[in-house]
Amino acid sequence: MASDTLPVAQQLAAESAKVSVFLAAVGEDVLSRSVVGQDSLRDIWALRFLVGFKWQPLLAAEKFKTMVEYRVQFGIDNIRRRMQDGELVPSSFPGYSEHHAAYVHSTFDLGVSARGGNPVAIECPPRFHHDALLAIDGHTQDTYLMHVMEWSFLQLDRASIKSGDSIGYVKIFDCDGCTMKHCGLIRPWAQTCSDRSKRLGFNIDECYPEWFSKVFVVNSPSFFTVIWKMIKPFLPARTAEKVEVLSNRAKAKDRMLKTIDPKALPAFLGGDFVGEWRMELDRSSPRNVDMAAMSHVQ
Questions:
Q1: Half-sphere exposure (CA, 13 Å, Cβ side) for 172?
Q2: How far apart, in Å, are the Cα atoms of 110 and each of 122, 149, 226, 291?
Q3: Which of 42, 118, 131, 282 could form a disulfide with 114 if both were Cys (CB 3.0 to 4.6 A apart)?
Q4: Per-position b or e across 38-73, b if 16+ CB within 10 A of its CB
Q5: pLDDT at position 45, please?
Q6: Residues 78-91, mean pLDDT to the nearest whole number
């Protein structure tokens, strides 16, 4: 199996037989229905699905075809075109204000990233306004998430085309302040995800595989193993494999700095960045507008 650290073209070449099976199973008619099946994006998205579904070409092809159906049904290619044309930015996404008023997470447009060019995003779940998030109506949640996912992958696609590599986010979940009461939020969160899949008829996670290249869970409490056992079944298998849980601050700092440039890591996590890292609802700031959605996790 090809190493996922190789450039896109080399990974596909190393598994050319499986790639051929995948492309034949998807079919030119399906590939032609969406921009992600054409030109330079075809290789990037084909690799994401093959890697995300563990190089099982027939399974990956079925998931890819479902993804194309999702894009056609909800007009996702048109949403992407409007983003590329500058008509749609995160501050104009449906549900932007409702969602981001309840989040504590990064804007992180510092011009630097993790080693290898992967963008960095930070969230602090214990500081979320969970009641406000759960109170957002289902349609607004769904529409907002569709826009966020497409925006995020548009950025990844641009970075992948520029570098030739398969780019994914390096995600940091800062669990400082997590208490046992947060365990009670897992069931409503899982129900929200389940309800969304039923409403849409699609599992959005499976339409966007390989979102993350690495996930760090830091400042985790001693009982986090209980929370992790509850969360893990709801995550894509490939995402779960990339999660590293670190309760020791010194060890967490050491591990993160092996992956992330110190300039891209806030000081409270052991890096050198001392400016404002949080996304705020200040729409006068282009940085906040452009990068707001890049830290969102459903």
A1: 33
A2: 13, 21, 35, 10
A3: 118
A4: eeebbbbbbbbbbbbbebebebbbbbbbebbbbbee
A5: 98
A6: 94
